[in-house]
Amino acid sequence: MYLYKSIYEYAEAEYIVEKSRFIAHASPAENTEEAKLFIAGIKEKYKDATHNVPAFICGAGMEHQWASDDGEPQGTSGMPILKLISALELTNIAIVVTRYFGGIKLGTGGVARAYTHAAKLAIERAGICEVREGICLEYSFDYTYLSRIQNMSEEGRFVIEDISYTDVIGAKLSCMSEEVAAVKSLLADITGGKASLNDEQLVLAKYRLQAESGSVLENIKTEIKK
Fold it and tell me: Do 192 and 213 form a contact (C-beta atoms < 8 A)?
């Protein structure tokens, strides 16, 4: 089940204009506390910078939004970054754009464009993804079925998150919630009903999007939701 759009991973991007150096830092943030901790960490790391302009949006409904100009002229930096995030319909994301002033004034319009462009570069580098509700199925089965199950995972219906090797194979398979019944049926068919389902947990899964078409490319790590 689709929940929201966010970014795939942490990323940095640098942009230089009129000798001013802009370093954008973009990070996933599951809640406002994570966002604030990330922002504080960047400010501490770049405490010698002229400005560290932060913005974040959190919540599945994008309900928690905040930005600061950090000493730049009002409305020229934090708010443009926030508007960019909102326009892309991203949430659970925090951005800090660090500026080292180069001695040449950009004007209010130039400042806004520079901060927006730097933030956009970091978002593009981080990658946009869909966050969906999924299920992690923990199975155990005989070694003879492993290669067939691995081959089936390559077709994209489920992802093998982890494999353990003991007297039997232990495997964690993640899939979208709407595919659970089909995956269970598939495992039963492959193993002749001999695969043992030991656990089933709700997870959040990130799926990277292809920039040109917005289509899903791949599943990455999942996190236990409850």
Answer: no
Domain count, the chain: 2
Supply the pLDDT for residue 210.
66
| 187/207 same-domain check | yes
pLDDT greater than 60 at residue 95: yes
* pLDDT tens-place string over residues 56-83: 999 999 999 999 999 999 999 999 999 9
Question: What is the domain range of residue 198?
Answer: 130-224
Tokens of 48: 């010698």
Are both 90 and 161 inside the same structural domain? Answer: no
Is residue 33 over pLDDT 60? yes
Instruction: Quote the pTM value.
Output: 0.79
Same domain, 193 and 147: yes
> Distance between CA 11 and CA 67 in Å, rounded?
19
Handedness of CA 88, 59, 61, 209 (dihedral sign): positive
101 shares a domain with 29: yes
Do 15 and 96 belong to one domain?
yes
Please state the rounded mean pLDDT for residues 148-153: 93
